[in-house]
Specification:
Shape: globular
Oligomer: single chain
Mean pLDDT: 86
Number of helices: 8
Distance between the termini: 31 Å
Largest sheet: 6 strands, mixed
Strand content: 15-25%
Low-confidence stretches: 1-14
Strand order of the largest sheet: 1-2-7-8-6-5
Order of helices and strands: EEHHHHHHHEEEEEHE
Length: about 260
């Protein structure tokens, strides 16, 4: 099965990522989250990454898998009941549209098919109506056929493609975890796919404030640092969406340091 990884019991969907801090809300845009995904990928052990035959295209896919969100994430969106839309409550029609836009904006065909398969798997394992899933798959496949001029390679049995896809999915999930600073249970973190007979099963554990320990051998270096860009505004501004929009646009970009160790 090409769609190898399973986000078990995980309510999928990605929107501007939020984190409550005292009486403020911290916002991380989707494209910045993708940048963090790439930083995580670059930290992974060389022995693991050597399993990719297309490392530069893999990096491109990881960095650009949320291209479609750039314009939409220029400021937070507020619901009629004064809630900030996040990855947990986003309207799936908007999300589907932006995922498809992310695929179509990718100018690298191999990277685009990685991104497409990533989103297709998330869609298939969501609770969306079957007709919505079917339509998304058809549109995603149509975009890919157009990129490959109708001759889409068959990646179903290629270990290299499965490895690259697993890296995209894992770094996406790890970045989400670190941007929110909220650990999920171990069962939600699938292993790195190496081949039909081999996996790398890492673990992640929060051991201190903004410090996370991973299974030995997952990262190339013992100690690693990630700086997550975010904007911080007062939570009470949710009641006045226009003021919240202006405050977000004017807010200074700050950086939160996260330490990752083997």
């Amino acid at each position: 099965d090409l769609r190898y990884l399973v986000y078990r019991d995980f309510s999928i969907g990605f929107f501007m990522i939020t984190r409550i801090y005292d009486e403020d809300i911290c916002f991380v845009t989707q494209h910045d989250h993708a940048m963090v995904s790439l930083e995580i990928l670059n930290m992974i052990s060389k022995d693991i990454l050597d399993n990719s035959n297309d490392i530069e295209n893999l990096k491109y896919a990881v960095r650009n898998h949320d291209l479609g969100w750039i314009d939409y994430d220029k400021y937070p969106k507020i619901s009629d009941t004064y809630e900030v839309y996040t990855f947990q409550n986003v309207d799936y029609e908007i999300q589907n549209e932006l995922w498809l836009k992310s695929i179509s904006l990718c100018n690298n065909p191999y990277s685009a098919i990685l991104i497409s398969e990533h989103f297709k798997y998330l869609i298939l394992n969501s609770n969306r109506p079957d007709n919505v899933k079917k339509l998304f798959l058809e549109k995603a496949d149509s975009i890919i056929r157009s990129m490959f001029k109708g001759k889409v390679p068959n990646f179903d049995n290629l270990n290299n493609f499965k490895f690259d896809l697993s890296c995209l999915q894992i770094t996406d999930l790890l970045s989400l975890t670190l941007c929110r600073e909220k650990i999920m249970k171990d069962s939600l973190f699938p292993p790195v796919y190496i081949n039909d007979k081999q996996e790398f099963d890492y673990k992640i554990k929060k051991i201190d404030k903004s410090v996370y320990k991973f299974t030995s051998g997952f990262f190339e270096k013992k100690e690693n640092l990630i700086e997550i860009p975010y904007r911080q505004i007062e939570a009470e501004l949710i009641q006045t969406p226009k003021k919240m929009k202006k405050s977000f646009i004017d807010a200074e970009v700050k950086y939160r340091r996260i330490y990752l160790i083997n």
